[in-house]
Amino acid sequence: MLTGFLLTLPFQQRFTTLTPLQTGLYLALVALSVLVTAVLMSTVVMHRSFFQRRIKNDLVRNSDLLLRWTLILVGLILIGTVGLVFDIVLGGWAAAVSAAAAALVLAGLWLVLPLTSRSRALRRGQPEDPRDSPAPE
After folding, report:
1. How far apart, in Å, are the Cα atoms of 62 and each of 73, 77, 93, 135?
2. What span, in angstroms and rounded, lies between the C-alpha atoms of 137 and 129?
3. What is the rounded CA–CA span in Å between residue 14 and residue 85?
4. Is 66 strand, coil or helix?
5. What are the tens digits of pLDDT across the range 94-136?
6. Coil, strand or helix at 99
């Protein structure tokens, strides 16, 4: 739904009423969307180029890094899009509050929840899967 908003916004009459800040945010979100697609797809390209070359540890390490960057970029896109939509519809304060709320939700789901779940599992004595350990240098 938010992506549809981003794609149709420039073709609406209201686009000409955007402030320079809103226009800049819109263009930044479009650029971030292109960047996140490129970063995410690079994991597929790496997988294909590393396939059957016995360099799985490098593939896993590099893909992990790229996917972490993808999460950061997707988070920025989500927060920015929510902020832009609320700014256009309701104004500045609503944009700030909605963007902050989106950031808190993402931080809770993507940082706090995994860390607390892992911590609970380790306290219960559940052994870690050795496949989850970082590859030796």
Report:
1. 17, 23, 40, 11
2. 19
3. 12
4. helix
5. 999 999 999 999 999 999 998 999 888 888 886 666 555 555 5
6. helix
